[in-house]
Write a structure and sequence with these properties.
The protein has about 350 residues and is mostly helical. It contains 18 helices and no strands.
Amino acid sequence: MKKENQKALPLLALLLAAAAILLVFAAPARAGAKAGLALAENTVLPSLLPLLMLFLMIQNTRAGVLLSRALTLPAKALRLPPQAAGALLFGQIGGYPTGAVLTGELLDRGVIDRATARRMLCFNVCGGVGFICTAVGTAVLHSGTAGWLLLTANILANLTVAAVTVPLSDPPAAKEVPPAPPLSAGEALPAAAKGAMESLLHLSACIILFSALCAVVPVPKWLLPLVEITAGLCTGTGYTLTQTAAFLAFGGLCVHLQLLGWAGRFGLPYPTFLACRAGAALLADGYCRGLLRLFPQPAAVFSNISETLPRPGIGSTTLTALLLAGAVVFALDLLQRRRRVDWA
């Protein structure tokens, strides 16, 4: 017990320091929180809430049964139950918390086991159509095509992570309790509204907290996407398309904080999740480079994102260091799992 308490000392110090900062610098913290609230109210909730409700209704009704049958082959290729294919599809197009929310719903209803949910969270994380294509592509880069290229690179990166983790996955375990039957449309609607609102309130609270802290403790603009992806990419600070793809795949620490609750429920250690997101960022960078060779973008797109380009090498060096660290953690995790299998 004493050792556990001692391990909690750094966390206590960090939380007390954050609280002290917010108390001492109350005015800028309040302004930052208001900005975060406006971002959640004007961007996050309108774009994610309707979609998340519809996705939950599809998944929890017989419509989800039909969809899972249509996606049986790709699900088997990734060693996933067919019922999980819809959650993976919607997680890629719906936005960052969508995949985790739908995966958690499948686990709660007994459709998938905990090991499958844990593995899915490693790759079912994506900014989705609304954020990547509309907010980043159309609004920031002034190019819908660039937005779709970024989304494609992110989806390909996630599917690659899913494929890489196939050898580490176990066949679906036999369930002690049969899965819950599909809901009727009348039952699914209020359940979807409750689940979507709870998830997005959690997301919005994290955005407000990070906005308040960033207002008091300024984060360098070239580092901001690694901390809070929405503000980092929507403030006009310029990055290359390949860097933008990598930042989107990583998701930012604010998104990671939003997903920690699900990671804890699924039994996924944060270092493993961090390594998977860093690996996905590296893959997204590579896929984006390949897509740009196939679909070259006009110079206007690059001029839109390079007006305030950070000093050469700063953003790329930081990102590269993070990716290398993530790759090392991922490799060590793979080795540890292999040893467990050998000793079993």
